[in-house]
C-alpha cells in the first residue's frame, strides 16, 4: 500500500480547520437569526430548537427517542417540552402503539417559527454564496455534498450515547 500523500494530509487538515471555523461562524449567525425571529414570538433556546428540528423531521416521535437522539436526560427533555408547549410550539400526543408513552408534534405555530428561522438562515447563506465566483460555488456545492455524505455515514455508524450516565 502506498504511503499517504503528505500534501493530501495537509489539505485535509486545512479543510478541517476551515470547516470548523465556518461551523463556529454559522453558530453565531444562526443564534442571531434565532434571536431576530424571537421578537415576534417567545424565544426558544438553541437546545429547544434542536428538539424542534428532531420533531419536525419525525412527527409523533416518542419523548424517549428524542432524549436518545439529543443525548439528553429524560428530565431535560421534559423541561424543554414543557417550555415549548407553554409557548405554543409543541404538543404532546398519545402514542398509538403504547398508551404509556408520549409522542411529540409541532403545532402550526411551531412549524411557522422554524420556517421563519430557516428562511432567515437561507437568506444569509444565499447572500454570501451568491457573492462567490461561479467556480467557487460549484466547488463548494460538490465539497458540501461529499461532506454531508461522510457525516451521515459517521453519524449512522456511531453508537448512540446513553441519555443517562452509567452508574
Descriptive key words:
globular, 6 helices, 167 residues, two-stranded antiparallel ribbon, Arc Repressor Mutant, subunit A, disordered C terminus, mainly alpha
User: Any idea what the shape is?
Assistant: globular
CATH architect. name: Orthogonal Bundle
**Helicity range:** 55-70%
Q: Look at the helices and sheets and give the structural class.
A: mainly alpha
Q: Could you tell me the number of beta strands?
A: 2
Could you name the CATH class?
Mainly Alpha
Count of DSSP H/I helices: 6
CATH topology, by name, is Arc Repressor Mutant, subunit A
Major β-sheet strand ordering? 1-2
- Secondary-structure element pattern, one letter each: HHHHEEHH
CATH superfamily: Winged helix-like DNA-binding domain superfamily/Winged helix DNA-binding domain
Q: Any low-confidence stretches, pLDDT <50, length ≥5?
A: 161-167
Any overview of this molecule?
This protein is mainly α and 167 residues long. Residues 161-167 have low confidence and may be disordered. The longest helix has 33 residues, at 6-38. The radius of gyration is 20 Å and the shape is globular. The termini are far apart. Strands 1-2 form a two-stranded antiparallel ribbon. It has helices spanning 6-38, 46-57, 63-70, 74-86, 108-130, 134-157, and strands at residues 90-94, 102-106. It has a single domain, classed as Winged helix-like DNA-binding domain superfamily/Winged helix DNA-binding domain (Arc Repressor Mutant, subunit A), CATH 1.10.10.10. It is built from six helices and two strands. Helix 1 packs across helix 5 and helix 3 (63-70) packs across helix 4.
Amino acid at each position: 500500500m502506498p504511503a499517504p500523500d503528505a500534501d493530501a494530509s495537509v489539505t485535509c487538515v486545512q479543510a478541517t480547520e476551515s470547516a470548523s471555523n465556518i461551523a463556529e461562524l454559522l453558530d453565531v449567525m444562526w443564534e442571531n437569526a434565532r434571536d431576530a425571529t424571537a421578537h415576534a414570538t417567545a424565544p426558544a433556546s438553541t437546545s429547544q430548537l434542536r428538539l424542534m428540528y428532531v420533531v419536525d423531521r419525525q412527527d409523533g416521535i416518542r419523548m424517549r427517542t428524542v432524549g436518545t437522539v439529543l443525548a439528553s436526560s429524560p428530565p431535560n427533555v421534559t423541561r424543554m417540552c414543557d417550555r415549548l408547549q407553554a409557548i405554543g410550539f409543541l404538543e404532546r400526543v398519545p402514542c398509538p402503539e403504547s398508551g404509556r408513552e408520549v409522542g411529540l408534534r409541532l403545532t402550526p405555530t411551531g412549524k411557522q417559527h422554524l420556517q421563519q428561522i430557516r428562511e432567515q438562515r437561507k437568506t444569509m447563506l444565499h447572500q454570501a454564496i451568491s457573492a462567490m465566483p461561479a467556480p467557487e460555488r460549484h466547488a463548494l456545492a460538490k465539497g458540501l455534498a461529499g461532506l454531508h455524505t461522510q457525516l451521515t455515514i459517521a453519524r449512522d455508524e456511531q453508537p448512540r450515547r446513553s441519555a443517562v450516565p452509567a452508574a
